[in-house]
Design goal:
A 4-stranded antiparallel β-sheet has the order 4-5-6-7, with no helix packed on it. The protein has a 3-stranded antiparallel β-sheet with strand order 1-2-3, with no helix packed on it. Strands 8-9-10 form a 3-stranded antiparallel β-sheet, with no helix packed on it. The protein is globular. Helix content is 0%, strand content 51%. It has a domain of 85 residues. The termini are far apart. It has no helices and 10 strands.
């Protein structure tokens, strides 16, 4: 199983990671590093335009209660390299692919506790 995590009490900005966890609940291996607060992730369908069959992840950025910056983003992994896909989000917490759309849950998109569902269509 893949999980997004951040070391407890860490103050550096990009120490969040995606790791594999075994059925015993123990971290087995770190898969990707260098995120603020990695949250939702998944593989895009083959029909998702130029970015089909790629690993995507939502990075929440700084917590909303610490900063109202729109530093949340969605990133994609292309041939082992992390590349930006969407930016300017508040705190994207989860994402799912529905057909050729990427559906993102952002609980603070319109302000504290005023969430929204953000939908991005694959146009490429």
């Amino acid at each position: 199983m893949l999980v997004g995590m951040r070391p407890k009490n860490e103050v550096a900005s990009k120490v969040g990671r995606i790791a594999t966890v075994g059925t015993d609940g123990v971290v087995k291996d770190v898969y990707l590093v260098g995120f603020a607060r990695p949250a939702g992730f998944g593989n895009s369908p083959s029909t998702f335009g130029t970015y089909g069959n790629e690993f995507f992840l939502a990075d929440m950025g700084k917590p909303y209660d610490q900063s109202q910056e729109r530093d949340g983003s969605v990133l994609r992994l292309e041939k082992g390299i992390v590349r930006p896909y969407a930016s300017g989000l508040m705190d994207p917490t989860d994402m799912k692919f529905v057909g050729n759309k990427l559906v993102i849950c952002d609980p603070n998109e319109k302000g504290a506790g005023q969430g929204a569902i953000v939908v991005i269509n694959s146009m490429i």
